[in-house]
Amino acid sequence: PPVALFLAPPGLLPRGVARVLWNSLNAMALGYFFVAVTRSLRRVLPVPWWVVVVAVGLSSEFIQHLFVLGQIEGCILALLAVFIGQAQPRPWLAAAALALVILIKIPYGLVLLWAVYERQYAQLWRVPLCLTALIASAFLVFGVAGTLEQFAAWQALLASTTAPLLCLRSNQSLWAMLCTVTDMPPEHLWRLAVPLSVLFISSGVWVSLAIRQRARTETERALAGMVFLAWLLYGAAVLSPLGWRTNLISITPMVM
User: Residue 1 CB: number of other CB atoms within 10 A?
Assistant: First the structure.
């Protein structure tokens, strides 16, 4: 519900104007994301410019889908780039960026595992504190009773709509994949999805640690961290019960 406070102002504009402004914001956010990721990679590897072009090309379907539907994934990627790039020089800015991402889409909380992997332990208390502050902003507008009512309505909406959507063909998540190989009713898919999700994350930890253990230089150790981060970003899309095509734009770092 607090996210509605940030999205409400564009809703006061004429639909056409709001759409142009929103897609422009997403375009700038994606541009910032690609520039930030390229700079981060170049600190580790001599990444040529054509790699970025290829990554954009391979992600073009998801990017097009993002603009057609007017989704928020471009802004999410930009905020994630802020978290990754500003974690050391501006830790509070980085924490606020990730807190806002988690508030928008909870599965991106997986990125906190990257902070643990990189031993940025201070973010483990800064991010929850910023998240609490963002949620508290709703109290200022709706009041305590109104905010609790909004959260209750949000949870009721999720409970009534998630299960029927799990097995739709447009759902690209692990949960939807399980629909094709099991006869379980949607409301019971968590029995398989949860252990497989743990296995997926554990595999990412194992692969990254294996790369780091074999690393001979700081460059190779930094590369291991980037592999784990890309793994988690992909996991945020595919492990979410509802993972739509636009959400798969988060695989872009893995492509790069």
Answer: 18
Alpha-carbon span 179 to 164, nearest angstrom? 12
Rounded Cα gap, residues 122 and 94, in angstroms: 11
* Residue 105: strand, helix, or coil: coil
Provide the 8-state DSSP code for 187: G
Contact partners, residue 224, CB within 8 Å, separation at least 6: 208, 209, 211, 212, 215
**What is the C-alpha to C-alpha distance for residues 43 and 219, in angstroms, rounded to an integer?**
8
* % residues pLDDT > 90 (the chain): 27
- What's this model's pTM, rounded to 2 decimal places? 0.87
Compute, in degrees rounded to 10, the torsion defined by CA atoms 20, 23, 25, 29.
Answer: -160
Query: If phi over 0 gives left and psi between -120 and 50 gives alpha, with beta otherwise, what is residue 70?
Result: left
- List pLDDT tens digits, range 33-74: 888 877 777 776 677 777 778 877 878 888 888 888 888 888
